[in-house]
Amino acid sequence: MPNSELMPIGVFAQRSGLTSSALRFYADSGLLPPAEVDPVTGYRYYDADQVARARVLRQLREIAMPLTAVEAVLDAGADEAARLLDEHIVKIEWDAATARQKAAVIKAALSGTVPGLLIATLKGPVLADAVEQVLTATAHEPGMAVLAGLHIEASDEVIALTATDRYRLSTRTLVPARPAEQTWAGTVDGDDLRAAVAEVRRSVLVRIEAVPHGIWLRMPAREDRHCRMLPEEFPDHRQMFASLGKVTTRATVSKDLLLRALEEHPCEHVALHASDHEVNVQHPNDDHPGISLPATVRGDALQIRFEMTTLYPALSTAIGPDVMLDLRGHDRPVTIRSADRGDLTTLAMPINFDHAA
Q1: Where are the domains of the chain?
Q2: pLDDT at 287
Q3: Which fold has domain 114-238?
Q4: Architecture in CATH of 244-356
């Protein structure tokens, strides 16, 4: 007779979330043998201590982990189990990306798709750098998929790349080696573009073609990459730029010195005080003099405060040795530009004084 503290397979199934048939399968595979089997009836009984293992087993199978890997995770220590899980997720992501690319090729073949509308032909390294710079202003937020995308606008003269996470907005314009066949605009999945950047960087030229539901990155001597379109409407960034208002203070400062001062800053909030011939990096609520940086400042003296997670990436992606900060007041967006190249522009939203308190 079984121990009265053991539970029959049906009760154990309810507590573990596994079906009875799954428990029999895992018992026969050696992953989760019962604590006791009645020699007469063949009924299987489980111990309460096995519930935790059974639940983890179920969760591992829910993320499509193969049995051999499941066994390794269950029998490993915490650090090794975490490493095995990370390896499994990387493989899933790689398989998914490969499947998306193959599916795009198959769909094109099935529909007899002819080459898409030419958006632009660009130098691969230039396009890769621009995509990486602008994508720093993206975010993954539930219900707002468009914030994870890169908006592309093509004309016969330039191609503009724009992204925003609501706290920053970055836009960069590029002059194509070959212009668009007609004006075009759309928002492309940022993760697809990130996955393609390494190949784009190694291609001398990249031909960007628009097709239904996506774009193709055509690269000579390399595998073409497909990036999906996002259906949501991109925020009206042109209206945002148009409504910024007059610049009251303009400060030009060394990008490297400013980034170094931010790296040494101990708080999550930071205040910039622009006056005379300097920009001072301060604690928002401290009378300490902070770190003074030489700068060219024109206009009114002004202090403005930021979240470090907003300001630092906005500055780090700037092009060239210097950055130009166009300030409009302590509560207005700041325009951050490269002092000698204006083709990458970033808006950074400040925080109010109460928030920084």
Answers
A1: 7-75, 114-238, 244-356
A2: 66
A3: DNA Polymerase III; Chain A, domain 2 (3.10.150)
A4: Roll (3.10)
pLDDT at 2 over 70: no
Positive or negative torsion for Cα 64, 69, 75, 77 = negative
Which whole number is the average pLDDT over 180-190? 90
- What does DSSP assign to residue 69? H
Residue 272: which residues within 8 A CB-CB, separation 6 or more?
279, 280, 281, 282, 303, 304, 305, 306, 325
Dihedral sign for Cα atoms in the order 250, 253, 259, 262: negative
Q: Is beta strand 278-282 parallel, antiparallel or unpaired with respect to 159-164?
A: unpaired
Per DSSP, the three-state class of 289 is coil
Half-sphere exposure of 14 (CA within 13 A, CB side): 4
Please, are residues 189 and 223 in contact by the beta-carbon 8 Å criterion?
no
pLDDT mean over 255-266: 93
Q: Pick the range with the lowest mean pLDDT from 209-213, 249-253, 341-345, 351-355.
A: 351-355
Rounded distance between C-alpha atoms, residue 137 and residue 306, angstroms: 15
pLDDT for 54 equals: 93
For the four alpha carbons of 194, 198, 201 and 207, in that order, the dihedral sign comes to: negative
pLDDT of 131? 95
Token match 């300490």: residue?
A: 288
| Number of helices (H), then strands (E), in the chain | 11, 19
Helix axes 255-264, 308-316, angle to 10 degrees: 150
pLDDT digits (tens, 9 = 90+) for 89-125: 988 888 887 777 677 667 666 665 556 788 899 999 9
pLDDT tens figures, 203-254: 999 999 998 889 999 998 888 899 999 999 998 888 888 888 899 999 999 9
Q: Which of 190, 188, 177, 93 is nearest to 132 (CA)?
A: 190
- Token duo for residue 271: 């205040």
User: Which fold, 7-75?
Assistant: Multidrug-efflux Transporter Regulator; Chain: A; Domain 2 (1.10.1660)
Reading the block at residue 102, the tokens are 């193959």
